[in-house]
Write a structure and sequence with these properties.
It is built from eight helices and seven strands, in the order E-H-E-H-H-H-E-H-E-H-E-E-H-E-H. By secondary structure, the chain is of the alpha/beta class. Bound molecules: BIS(adenosine)-5'-pentaphosphate (AP5).
Length: 230
């Protein structure tokens, strides 16, 4: 679908653990040449590198709890100040609480609308997906089904994510319902909010998402004229 040339494409992916936010954010960002900003990836890289952020966040992440709002808002504010986000971005994993969503609105002031996509998947499917997920222990990419023991990108060993144990996943789902689900209500009245059925093959989800985001962005562009800072 063709996009209006001057409108920044600012996308937020919402959904519970295992909904496919990371998978779809990667695909959409690649297709539209936008930076993908995954707060989970940023934190995991910090843990792997042993930085102060990583050392502070590791126990919280391993327990399936959320890292503090102030820390996360600071990370995202700094990342969205970089010039590569001026034409838009795809946010995966942020916002996750109402204070984070409120802060994002303030950060976005004057930068064009957010297109918010909520990926909906039944809980039994989420549990199955996360029990089966393997990632690369070196580069962190989700393993494809045909990779048996090593990563097809960098050759690293495949491992289970430290927060994908069944009890931790159940805890992450509880945290999602308590902290993150309320931001679906926060966004759902906006004209650029869309829901996507994520319980379909990945390529079908990708197509539905691409159409929904481009249509929402185009309809925002044809609405009342607003100044967009590029
Ligand atoms: P994060 O990494 O964001 O984890 P999450 O939200 O729990 O999401 P997941 O990565 O588990 O799932 P996903 O929806 O991205 O699905 P994916 O595409 O990987 O955060 C991790 C932790 O960091 C948090 O618990 C918290 O501690 C901290 N954190 C991060 N952001 C934070 C914030 N803003 N505030 C506070 N704390 C924060 O797919 C999952 C699996 O399913 C894969 O194996 C994939 O191949 C498969 N799959 C995907 N789509 C399909 C499909 N359509 N059909 C079949 N299989 C599929």
């Amino acid at each position: 679908m063709t996009l209006p040339p001057t409108l920044a494409l600012n996308v937020v992916m919402l959904g519970p653990p295992g909904a496919g936010k990371g998978t779809q954010a990667e695909r959409f960002a690649r297709t539209h040449a936008l930076p993908k900003i995954s707060t989970g990836d940023i934190l995991r890289e910090a843990v792997q590198a042993g930085t102060a952020l990583g050392r502070a966040a590791k126990a919280t992440m391993d327990a399936g709890e959320l890292v503090g709002d102030d820390v996360m808002i600071g990370i995202v504010r700094e990342r969205l100040e970089r010039p590569d986000t001026r034409a838009g971005f795809v946010l995966d994993g942020f916002p996750r609480t109402v204070p984070q969503a409120t802060a994002l609105d303030a950060i976005m002031d004057g930068r064009g609308p957010l297109v918010v996509v909520d990926i909906v998947v039944p809980e039994d499917v989420l549990l199955r997906r996360l029990a089966a997920r393997r990632i690369c222990g070196s580069c962190g990419v989700n393993a494809l089904i045909e990779w048996t023991t090593t990563c097809g990108v960098c050759g690293g060993a495949l491992i289970t994510r430290t927060d994908d144990g069944i009890e931790i996943v159940r805890g992450r789902l509880k945290v999602y319902h308590r902290e993150t689900r309320p931001i679906v209500e926060f966004y759902s009245g906006r004209p650029t909010f869309r829901m996507i059925d994520g319980n379909q093959p990945p390529d079908v989800v990708t197509g539905a998402m691409d159409r929904a985001i481009c249509e929402a962005s185009s309809s925002a562009a044809s609405g009342p004229v607003k100044e967009v800072r590029l």
